């Protein structure tokens, strides 16, 4: 699901990897669909590599998104601009065992913003499809 979806430090929103270039990547914004170069010097994070700290260890971001999707029945998550207390309460609902000492409100804002961007672009459907494919094999 999250394969090829990138977060670029200093750039708002999420990006889809389009192709490689000499100096980095060509990416397309999921917000406005504009393409731009992402240079190798930029701090680029692949969403598939991101995990959230829990009391039991790390949990892949995809699993957190799946939990939000189940709670919201495929709809939007809480607005990332909500108050810190609202974001923490929401996070406890979708991931009760998250590590409150190591997961900051700024992290929660990103998680919920990213989820909503993916939801708006119908990119969350792939979560179940990907898992069902693995189970059938």
TrEMBL record:
Residue span(s) of domain DUF5606: 2-47
Domain DUF6852, chain residue ranges per copy: 50-118
InterPro entries in the cross-refs: BVU_3817-like_C_sf, BVU_3817_N_sf, DUF5606, DUF6852
Any Pfam family the entry gives: DUF6852
Descriptive protein name: DUF5606 domain-containing protein
